[in-house]
Amino acid sequence: MNSLSKTLKFQALGFGAKALVYGKAAHYFAQLRTLQGLTHLFFSKEFPTRVRDPELQKTIHRALLDLLNHDANQFASGVYPFSMLRPGSPVKHWMRLGRLLGDGLRIQRQKKKGKTAEFSEEAQDFVHDVPRYYRRNFHFQKDGYLSPESADLYEHQVEILFGGAADAMRRMVFEPLAERWGGSDGRGLRILEVGAGTGRTSVMLRELFPKAHLTVTELSDPYLKRARRQLDESERVDFVQCAGEALPFHSKHFDAVVSVFLFHELPTEVREAVLAESFRVLKPGGVMATVDSVQQHDAPSWSPVLMQFPVDFHEPFFRSYIHEPLEGLFASAGLTSVVSRMGFVSKLVFGERPQD
Ligand SMILES: C[S@@+](CC[C@H](N)C(=O)[O-])C[C@H]1O[C@@H](n2cnc3c(N)ncnc32)[C@H](O)[C@@H]1O
Prior knowledge:
With 356 residues, the protein is of the alpha/beta class. Helix content is 50%, strand content 14%.
């Protein structure tokens, strides 16, 4: 292919990728505004709280567009396959949206009551099997992470919260993997995901490295069950219910360990323990990568937004999280060549286990 046709192909792919990535963001952003409108109508309250400072608003908006452009370029240049952008069933999507807007109003009532550890009978089956710090209604979600209903709504809720940019942020965790193994189908690689939730990242990881062996782990039984359903047809995937701070795997087993939106949910000592365990199970030379919320040192002027987040959504460990730089925790766990990059309200942090 000559250079002109290569350029034209890149531009056409870039246009297609932008249309898909921006189209999705616009779709969820409209849902976010609907939720805000309804909350205002029923409770005369703003939820989620809007950013007041116009300068900060502009900066965050710019960061969102930068991330969407970056993400679209990753598709256009072939780093990610377009199949990752395949939408789910539209019927299920619209049916869920009704339930979800109702749940947004229930969250307001729950917030008002100030109760953060209430569990339905259904969730009682799981509550006693999880650590104490986890027995919470995270985000004021009904049953926290401990019911099938919560697992059903979770991914959609996260996309609304981040105005359609959640997947673009999640995909940042693939960057160090694509830099190292890009172009390969992943044959021979063993990749571990910790705190995989309902499997959103795992599904995309499968598309990126179809022949890699994935080990998908998660503490919540209902969330892991949903992840299993989402990856139903896939071969070479193990599903293991476990805590990230007690990984039931041999040392030096995995080529890469990834996690997305996990560390801000953990108390400090558990954060450290998860990193120590991730280091232990990594092969020398292996890659550890995470995507999570930006922290105070990344963007000091974003402080009002970072302080508001745990107020809007029950996030008991978020304040300690933003003040303890992940880069330092990675280094303390023994990881070297630690790098971090921001993307909208999240950041990618990665490092490697040195050779013995
Ligand atoms: C914010 S969600 C992120 C889920 C998923 N990674 C995603 O991107 O959608 C945090 C996840 O971490 C899980 N989690 C929390 N504490 C954990 C722990 N100690 N070990 C393993 N998973 C944990 C929760 O159950 C939840 O599914």
